[in-house]
Amino acid sequence: MKRFLAHRPACFGLLLLLLMIMLAAAAGLIQQRLGIDAETLDLMAPAAPASPAHLLGTDEVGRDLLARLLQGSAISLTIGLTTALAAAMIGTLLGIVAGYRGGVLDSLLMRLTDGVIALPLLPLLIVLGAVDPAKLGLSAELLQAPSGSLARTILIIALVGWTTVARLVRAATL
Fold it and tell me: Which residue ranges make up each domain of the chain?
């Protein structure tokens, strides 16, 4: 820790990262305090430069760029943390089962892990994203909910992100 604190660029980077996380976590509160909204159109100010009303300006349809930046960072933080947690839970469960049970089950789970690792990631994510959830038996209300696409994104990324955790947990369990 002493070495880290002595390294000024590392401390600056950590402070910048913490500031970005705090801004993303407080995005809704900041938008409310400033009286800005990411979805409100201001057709009288398309592509406006920075001003007291729009601190970072507006986009081509008049939406406040600061509000959109804050909203996007909050969504990214939510997806990142939730996906990491879900992938860690899946990987931990499969790694413990594989390491503890051993034998054929261990071999099957590790070959499944190897298979997921061997697949090219981007095409796999595109294919998983193109699957129609209604054909999988999920309710239409769930799919139309505002958080439906967020949950779907988290699920898709978590389904391919568990492999490293599974290998590490299996190795620690053996």
Answer: 2-173
